[in-house]
Amino acid sequence: MSETRGPARIALVGATGLIGRAVIERASASDDVRIVGVARREAPLPAGARMEMFVAEPDKWGEVFEAVRPRALICALGTTWKKAGRDEAAFRSVDHDLVLATAQAAHRAGVPNMVLVSAAGADPRAKSLYMRVKGETEAALSKVGFKRLDIFHPGLLRGERVDDLRFAERAALIAAPLVDPLLSGSWQRFRSIEAGLVAEAALSLALRRAGGRFTHDNEAMRRAARQWRQVHDMEAAE
């Protein structure tokens, strides 16, 4: 990217989560992109973060998108069944309603590309509420009208969460090195993956020019992450 144009702006919602923080860390080490975070409340950012942060109620996020004109939107929004108070409506209000409303606001503001971090196993016909809502959200986003929509299906995410103790998930992470090799066939998609790789893949794909709807499993995200690293390793060497 030329110096006269400056770094491309990428909007990020879900900046305080595991993936969001990883996106900020990777982008802050690059001169090609600049993250524009949009959130409901202030929160600590990773050390050395180079970004803009806007705090507003969700119904005002569209105004932020219109003001900053980002080239792409990365959505890492999501809650857990426990955080939602084990209430289906509360869970759906974040993982479906807020994600969809944010996407619609970004599209109205002229944002052409969106990257959604969903989950392996997402399916609108799934028996699991979590997977069903994720699948319904993906189906709804496909109708919003983005020029390019990239949907990520990561397995178990590896990384250090901040102030978010998920004991069952932590136990799964400890077991992941032993369990991952046993997951084959259709179960392979649930293997663990580093949050940093997902973040690098999101940055790599966010600014792609080719249009369409693309779904990425762990291996596809690793390929995109390698492309991000190759470009930025070359920049560091120059």
Question: What do these coordinates show?
Answer:
Helix 2 runs parallel beside helix 3. The chain is globular. With 238 residues, it is α/β, with parallel strands linked by helices. 41% of the residues lie in helices and 17% in strands.
Give a short synopsis of this structure.
The protein has 238 residues and is α/β, with parallel strands linked by helices. The protein is 41% helix and 17% strand.
- Strand segment tally: 9
Oligomer: single chain
Order of helices and strands: EHEEHEHEHEEHEHEH
Strand content: 15-25%
Radius of gyration: 17 Å
Q: Estimate the global geometry from the Cα principal axes.
A: globular
Structural class: alpha/beta
Topology, please?
Elements: E1 8-13, H1 18-28, E2 33-39, E3 51-55, H2 61-68, E4 72-75, H3 88-108, E5 113-117, H4 129-141, E6 148-152, E7 157-158, H5 167-179, E8 193-194, H6 195-206, E9 212-216, H7 218-237
Parallel strand pairs: 1-2, 1-4, 2-3, 4-5, 5-6, 6-9, 7-8
Helix pairs in contact: 1-6, 2-3, 3-4, 6-7
